[in-house]
Amino acid sequence: MKTIYISDLLSGNQTGNIVLSGWLSNRRHIGGVIFLDISDSTGMIQAIIEKRKISGVIFNAALRVSLESSIEVRGNMQKNSNNDQSEIFVSSFVVINENTLSLSPRPRSNFDIFDPSLTKQMLDYRHIYLRNPKIMAILRFRGELMQIIREWFFQNRFIEFDAPILTPAPLYDNRTAMSIDVHDQSVYLTQCAGFYLEAAVHAFERVFNLGPSFRGEESRSKRHLIEYWHVKAEVAFGNREDIISLVEDIIGYITQECIIRCKDTLRTLNSELCVDGLKSPFPRIAYEDAIKYLQSKSYNTHFGKGISTAEEEELSKLYDSAFWIVGIPRSVEPFPYVIDESDTRITMVADLIASNGCGELLGVAEKIHTSRMLDERLEEKGKLDDPRYQFVKEVHDSGCVPHIAFGMGLERLIRWLLNLPHVRDAIPFPRVIRRSIAP
What angle do CA 218, 223, 225 make, to 5 degrees? Predict the structure, then answer.
């Protein structure tokens, strides 16, 4: 088992003779000296092979082996007197497995991973390009971010609740849900953990779920995937102001922790973290006012219509931070959300629109707790007599209390924080519309 990593060597924790396993990312040959750039999961180090100090067989093997091959070197760690960098002077060189797949650009080479001309190749060979240091940095950030999110929830008295992926009842409609057959029963891949968190919140009062969701909308925007990870939470005994305040707190916490913990990611990406999450409380605009403003800018929209990506970008020009759109119409929102008593055209819902043109980041809502309002909304959406929603109705018939929720796409959050061009860059294996599920 490997016990020494390149980060150990670069930090000075290992000296003298060492054995290192990794991959050959680059090579230079000057006279009787070969300079090897060796990479592993923690970084890159230079190894030096001098012809006069090693057998011709080893020297030739190091000279001829293809780049990206897996190798093992033995040698002595020394500091370069010119730049004080740690280097390995090689005494033994072994090819573990030679690379025979020719890709250009090479996975570990320095190139623009966001170049649109490379998108297809990088998706086709995503299983190989995962080795690119910039992609690795994004995915490390993703892992760190998930830990930060969980920390905030645990510090604020939430418990993590594992909701099922298979469900009999889609949140929206059959058209946007992905159906599968399980033992002759037609069920769906989850669009949202909300039905199950709603049940759980009446036991635990504060619950969250971090898991996959699936939606089949025909959308090819830069913020849509058909498989993505969802941060969902519900709290008993609260209102919309409470959930807005809670979300602003978690976004601020996440941003602050990323500033502290993720410097290496930003250095690798040669990027800066978006810190607009620290600007809360975020400004608000009523949905109706947003529609009127868009109409004044010649957008073809009207009350009761969803706000498009281009329209969100137009509204973003009004603010220098993320902002809330409050009071989304009942015609747009699914059935579980409370109707505003002061204006029955709208729901007690708000969407947080990210800055920098990243679009909708998350939504918050007061959820229905009375059977009367639930039946009204189910009937409105054509679901009142649908037996698939019987378990939802039973929760509301069993001492249901006012409860609040939010849902946020993890990849959208990563895109916003790292200023990525597309959400597909924020997930290991992107699943996007009109593309084969491969690899």
Answer: 55
